[in-house]
Amino acid sequence: MKKLLIFIILLISISCEEIIYPDLESKDPILVVDAWLNNQNQSQTITLSSSQDYLDSTSIKFVSGAEVYITNDQGDKFNFTEKDNGNYTWNPDSNFSNLGNVGTEFLLNISYNGKKIVGSSAINRTSIIDSINFVKGEFPENSYYAEFWSNEKEGVGDAYWIKSFKNGIKQVRSQDIITCLDAGASSEGAIIDGIPFIPPIRRAVTRFERDETTDEFKSPFEYGDSLYVEIHSIPYEAFLFLNKVSIQIDRQGGFGELFAVSLANSPTNLTVENDSNFPIVGFFCVSEVNGMGNVLDDDEIEKIKKYNREW
Amino acid sequence: MFRKTYLLFFLFFISVNIYSQNNYTLNGFIKSASDGESLIGATIYINEIEGGVITNPYGFYSITLQEGEYNIEYRYIGYMSLKRKIILDKDQKIDIELLSEDVELENVLITSESENENVSSTEISTFKLDIGKINEIPTFLGEVDIIKAIQLIPGVSTVGEGGSGFNVRGGSVGQNLVLLDEAPVYNSSHLLGFLSVFNPDAVKDLKLYKGGIPARYGGRLSSILDIRMKDGNNKNKSISGGIGSIFSRLTIEAPIVKEKSSFILALRRSYADVLAKPFLKNSSFLNDGWALNFYDLTAKINFNLDEKNRIFFSSYLGRDNFRFDERQGFNWGNSTGTIRWNHLFNDRLFSNFTTIYSNYDYQLAFGSDDRNKFEWDSKIETLNLKPEFTYFIDTNNEFSVGGEFLIYRFEPANAQGVSDGKITDITIPKKYAFEGSFYLGNEQKFSNFSFSYGLRTSFYKYLGPGTKYIFNPSINPGERKTINSEIKMDKWENIQSFSNVEPRISINYKLNNSNSLKISYNKMVQYIHLLSNTAASSSLDVWTPSTNNIKPETVDSYAFGYFRNFKENLYESSIEIYYKNLKNQIDYIDGADILINKYIEGDLLFGIGRAYGMELLFRKKSGRLNGWVSYTLARTELKIDGINNFEWYPTRYDQTHNLKLTSNFDLNKRISLAGNFTFISGTPVTFPTSKYVIQGFVIPHNSNNSRNDRRIPNYHRLDFSVTIKGKKENKKGKIRKNNNSLVIGVYNVYNRRNPFSIYFSQGKKVVTESFVPGQVTRLSIIGSFVPSITYNFKL
Description:
Oligomer: heterodimer
Number of domains of chain B: 3
Number of domains of chain A: 2
Radius of gyration of chain A: 21 Å
Strand content of chain A: 35-45%
Number of helices of chain A: 4
CATH architecture of the largest domain in chain B: Beta Barrel
CATH topology of the largest domain in chain B: Maltoporin, Chain A
Distance between the termini of chain A: 10 Å
CATH superfamily of the largest domain in chain B: TonB-dependent receptor, beta-barrel domain
Helix content of chain A: 10-25%
Structural class of chain A: mainly beta
Radius of gyration of chain B: 27 Å
Largest sheet of chain A: 10 strands, mixed
Number of strands of chain A: 21
């Protein structure tokens, strides 16, 4: 796979790209709901903001003054109070150490400017990570790659979002939306289930990048680097959402543009109950999370040699 | 209705078949004197009746005339005409060999006059190009390319540089039927879309039907590109070839039994990897066993069994190979095989029986060891039987009848993944279909009117073994339909069938010898579909049959044209207006998963389409300066529930203005110059109006929810080439046996960065407290001028 990647990068360098500033239509801002929660024992945040003109690169326009809470199917209510501009948080307390267990269903309620916005989600089961391994890489020479190992649970219908953190920093480039159905399928039209995540998924936490000064590819991991991986369970609708977002934002350019699809709006699972014409974007999702980390230290390098770990 | 039409048809046919007794038939083959190649579309002009016939794709002609004395002219462009006086008092077979104009001999022959074929024939929306003309056109990297050449014809376009295939009058790439010696070629591109798979050294002639499509062709909506291979020199052995920037070419042709049988074998191979290998030996990322090449092999053998029987075997094999090491890589290619038997039942009844095998497949393999790997291949295979009969009734009627029977086997994906030693098979079951058709057609002349009319009836069956998928109707248009039930069907069981009647008619009203009006209507039906939701079609795109969920695509296509020649047919001009009404057009949901998805039908959206436009052509076919100007004003739109608020939107390849200028000038006997100029309106694109941030990702948003409502900047380009031919005589003044030439060319002379697309992304930047990235990038696939040099030889 990586060689395909490199081959594509070689092709890209033949073509030519320029940054331009076309006239884009300016439209009224739309309410944006960023509500991705999990059932860990930690503070949960829902962010409200409004969309901005595409070429306006100033900070996010946060939306204050909304009433935000979620309820579960047992009738419990979790209030999200506005901590700072546009960020509404709920913190674990003596009653609830987290939002709930697998199987719990939730309803999001937002009241803003007389509009009643709702959305629903449920916590699905996630997959447990067994290990994070570093392996020897061939390109560039003497480099290190990483992969996570997790035996995906049997039974069709699971969906996951895999997030990774290198040296504690979340990898949020457009190519870092790693999602799959079960152990690696991209749609329900192909079943890959109950096995370790397939190589394109478990190795996607290794990101190939060029050094900013030399423009040469550098080793994805170096001695002392850490990698933390999280598997978030997501509902099927959230999988579709992330898939569509990924198609829209992962534009690598070059010859890849020959095979790009049309720009299209990403879906939402939110509705405005009392005004169906009121535009809204964003997503509400509650996940179960499993995470694990590892550091590329002497011990790991020893293991790479001992077990001859490579892709 | 159906039966009645047939009946009328036959009555008409019979009525013309009753005529007087003393008629005799003159028939034969017309060939090139130098190499014995049959000449397609050569004219047999009878002075006494001020009319005549043209040869069919096998060089055969037949004309039935009353007893008498006739002055006959045999003519073909680029060849010297031949006049014959005959006394027709019995049936006669006269085979003719014409001399090429290049051969300079003193004799009684006269130089050919230009024909007024474009004015006098019923053919409308049709363009014929012989390989000699194609060879003169300046090209990208100096590689002579048939698909690039036809893009200079009015009404033909492409999504952009590097885009595979071509678009005709608003049709998608998969709506063209590309025939190589009658075998359908499912993917016509090497190296994405930069080069086409046809070796120009093995091609004799090609004809593109954009409209007015005769009843003998069917199966695709937009066009038929009929490419005929050379038969092979049946007089002398000849070796030709060349070395270009991309390919090395070698063609051998020779008689097997002189003037009875011959063969041609043409090979091409790219050699970038051969040249690069020594330099990359110690490269870190390309391991042993890497490859980057493409090749094709075109072969044909023909046997003249006797006066009445001739057999042809032709075959094409081509492949693109990208291999990273011994285990990992990607390859794709077509293979075709055609067996044809020409049989003359009598002087007037010509028949041809064709059996065709065609296959397109690709393979991918990833993974460094057997415990972790992924293997995936896909294939479409067809077997085709085609009997065809042409009955040359009299000078005014040429009747044809025939059929076509196709068996399809689709292998959408054979895919197996191994993860940590555990095997998962995600193969999608094979699909089978049968497509059959019968046709009748007649070419008829009535004083100033001539007609070409026909009827094709096609029938189609989607057959088991397979699965019939029943989907829940999508609640929201534009979203994935979920599966309701799956019904397993047995072998040969009928899952879904369709049938259609496809009338075809073209009428020519000849105002005089240099002016005519033409009108045509035809209905076309397409039962198999190329699924592709990307800007350009990719090598991985899969053909899929019509099913209980996918109806056959249809088009009603109308064209009207005025044809005019000037200066004794030296200049040809035409203006055509067309309108097409398309049904069951396919588009895709956002995020459609079109590969390895057994529920792919749930990701498809269906709607209607319309395409209309005007095409102008001004052409000078011969002389020191020759070439043509082509201009198209066009619009192509789709209306599909779930896209663009269910309103009309232009397709990705819609081009308002498309101007092409191509010319060739012979500076002297050895040096010729050629130039191309292209101007194309920007193609449609969807721009966002705004953006928003979810989980740190910047998502573009279009508040109008529109599709393709903006345009990328216009495209224009100039190409230029010089051809220097080797001296014809040697130092002693004798004519050299060998010919060679050097072609030096520049593509995109004035170095314009023509845009292919404009895309929106957050680039390498991340969202911070004070910054939300969002940049607009204009991409040029070919961002500079591209020089090339090609050497050609002929021994």
